[in-house]
Design goal:
The chain is an alpha+beta fold. 34% of the residues lie in helices and 24% in strands. It is built from five helices and eight strands; from the N terminus they run αβββααβαβββαβ. It has a six-stranded mixed beta sheet. The protein has a two-stranded antiparallel ribbon with strand order 6-7. β6 and β7 form a beta hairpin. α3 packs across α4. It is elongated. The chain starts with a helix and ends with a strand.
Length: 180
C-alpha cells in the first residue's frame, strides 16, 4: 500500500514540462489593463455604534443615531455630547482645516419627507454642538440631511427587514480632510 502511495505521489508531484505550441501557431499578445478600485477600510467600535473610514485624505466618522438621539428625536443626549467631544478632538488633531461636513441619515421606516426633515434636524443639532467644540479649529461646518437616500447597509435582506442594518443606517457622519 505504501509503495503504491509513494508511486502515486511521485507522479503527482513530479514536474511536468510545459507543452510546446504547434509550429504554425502565431498570435498577438495584448496587455490587459484593468481598473484598480480604491480599497476603503472601515474600523468599527466593538458595540457597532461608531465607525471610521478613510479614503485618500477624506476621513468619515460615523455615529449611529441610537447613541446620539432618542427614537424619532433630534435633541442630543448627554452621552452624545461626550462622543462628539471625542470626534471634535480627532478633527482638531488629524484635520487639515477647511470644510467639515455633517451628514444626517435615516433608515427606510417612515415617509421620505419625514426622514429628510429628521436627518436634517439631527445634522443641525450635531453642527450646533460641534461649532462650540471646534470654534478655534479654523473649520467651516456644513450640515445636510439625506434621509434614507444613502443607506450604509441594505435595510432589507432577502426581502425582510434587517434591524442591525437599519440601526447602522440611522447615523450622523462627520467628514473632514486629514493632514498630509
Amino acid at each position: 500500500m505504501f509503495r503504491s502511495l509513494s508511486v502515486a505521489l511521485s507522479l503527482v508531484l513530479a514536474p511536468t514540462p510545459a507543452p510546446s505550441p504547434p509550429a504554425d501557431a502565431t498570435g498577438v499578445v495584448e496587455n490587459l489593463v484593468l481598473p484598480v478600485e480604491d480599497i476603503i477600510g472601515e474600523v468599527e467600535s466593538l458595540d457597532g455604534t461608531e465607525s471610521e473610514t478613510k479614503q485618500g485624505r477624506q476621513v468619515t466618522v460615523s455615529l449611529t443615531s441610537d447613541v446620539l438621539f432618542a427614537l424619532d428625536k433630534w435633541q442630543l443626549t448627554a452621552k452624545a455630547r461626550q462622543r462628539l467631544r471625542q470626534v471634535a478632538e480627532k478633527v482638531k488633531a488629524d484635520g487639515a482645516g477647511g470644510v467639515v461636513k455633517i451628514e444626517g441619515h435615516t433608515d427606510d421606516q417612515g415617509s421620505d419627507a419625514y426622514n429628510v426633515t429628521l436627518s436634517q434636524r439631527r445634522a443641525q443639532a450635531v453642527q450646533a454642538v460641534m461649532r462650540g467644540l471646534l470654534a478655534d479649529a479654523g473649520v467651516t461646518l456644513q450640515a445636510r440631511g439625506y434621509g434614507e437616500s444613502r443607506p450604509k447597509r441594505p435595510n432589507l435582506v432577502n426581502g425582510k427587514p434587517d434591524e442591525k442594518n437599519r440601526a447602522q443606517n440611522r447615523r450622523v457622519e462627520v467628514i473632514f480632510t486629514a493632514k498630509q
